[in-house]
Known about the structure:
Elements: E1 3-7, H1 21-26, E2 30-32, H2 52-64, E3 70-75, H3 78-88, E4 93-99, H4 125-132, H5 138-146, H6 154-158, E5 173-178, H7 186-195, E6 200-204, H8 210-213, H9 215-224
Parallel strand pairs: 1-2, 1-3, 3-4, 4-5, 5-6
Amino acid sequence: METFILIHGAFGGAWRWEKVVPLLEKAGHKVIAPDLPGHGEKCEATTEGLTLKSYTDFVTEILDRQPAPVILVGHSMAGMIISQVAEYRPEKIKKLVYLCAFLLKDGESLRSRGGGHHDPINAPYEVFKETFYGDCSDEEARKARARLVPEKASVIAATPVCITEKNYGRIPRVYIECLRDNAIKPAMQNQMYTDTPCERVISMDSSHSPQTSRPEELAANLLSVIDQ
C-alpha cells in the first residue's frame, strides 16, 4: 500500500480531488487530500497574508505524520509547493508528481514563468470555462466555480522556490501534461519538464481539470507511477 498526498492548486480545495480519491482508495491505497490553509468550501479563514511558507509548513506537517515515504502530487500552483516541500523533507517523499503544474527551477517563481495572472472567480464565465474546464460539462464547470475561494496570489506568485540537487534533486519526478490546457499552456508545460527533466512524462488529452473530466484515466496514471 502506498500513501498518496494530493495538493490542490490556487482558488481550490480538497474537493478538486473528490472523483479521484475513491478510485485510488479502491485500489488499496491511503489517500490524503487536504484543504490548504484558507481554502475549502467550509473554511472560514482567508488567504489574506498567506505565503508560500504557510503552505509548505502545512504540507510538511502532514508528511511528518506519515510512517513511510509518500507519493506527493501537486496540481497547477501546487507544483511549486511540492517542490519546496521536497527540499525540506526529501526523506519523506518517494516520488513527486506534477499534474499540469508549475515545475520551477531554483530561483524561479510563478511570475517569472508567466503564471499567477488568471482570476477564475471574476473572469467572464466563458473565459473561465475555456481556461480551466474546457472539456467538462457546463454543469461541472459552474459547480466548480461556485466552490472557488478568493486567492491573494500576488505574494506567492512573486516568491521564488529555493531548491537544491542534494535534497529536491534526489527525488524521482513524473510530469502529467494536459494537452488541452489553457491555464498552463502545453508549450509551457513542455518547456518546464524539458528544463527540469523528469523520469517520465505522461500525456493526457484533457483541460486543466482532468480530476473532473477524466478521473478514471488520471487515477490510472497515478497508480502507474508506483512500480515505475
